[in-house]
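Tutorial, part two.
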Amino acid sequence: KGVSVMNELNVMITNVEKAQLLAGVPVQCTGVQTFNWEAIADLTEKQQQDAYRSYLETSLADVLSQRNLCVFGVDMQSSFLTAVIPGSNIELAGRTDLIILGDVVKTHPFMFRACVGSSKVAIEVKTSVEENHAYEAVSELITLSVLACDPVTVVLTDLQRVWRFFWVGEKRATQTVVFSAVVSDPHEAFAILKMLVPPTKRPFTRCKLRDMLSSDEEGGCGPILASVQRYYDIESMLGPDVEMARAVGDQIARSIPNLQTLG
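Running the prediction step on this input gives:
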């Protein structure tokens, strides 16, 4: 399914060197160990998730505590990554294992969905990473990029020697390019994560997917999507703005041919 969605949305994966991730990122050898899967082999799936969530949260503790964030384990049955992709009739519904959010969700889990828009990083954990998992990660990236207010990153990892980062990188003609880079050293992986949750500056260039997707008619939906996105950005910070919402609604109405003659 991931491949067909990418083809329909004209999204391609391009592998890049890890130097793009590590440029300007201070890496310290702090004795971080790879995750011990054998130690949790007999646990239930939920118990395993709790174990590797704790491993990640402990390794990122200094940054998370400074910024009031946490590593949140998503309900195994949740399909919270559900969104209609702008400029298409495609609705994606899925989940990820872990997501980095405001720590308010630890005491008020019911606020989880409301906090997704502020997320920066989702982490898909596998005991063994295979190439077909990349399409799953990109599907998560596409959906989270629509839901979140800022550019996002998805990490596909075995918590050992494979830490594969995915982010929306650039537009090439009509194609949206998702960059992917693999890091094998956990010290490097955690150094990058600490720059992403959330960054005070972007360690590497990432883009919003909705800014990349083309509309069915040249010049038709682009400005409208930009206006809608701008409204949601303002609403997320300042609350609802009735006048601005009305102005965006008028812009949408004017773009519909059958409504242009009304008024």
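Residues 215-221, 256-263 have pLDDT under 50 and may be disordered. In part three we will examine how such features are distributed along the chain.
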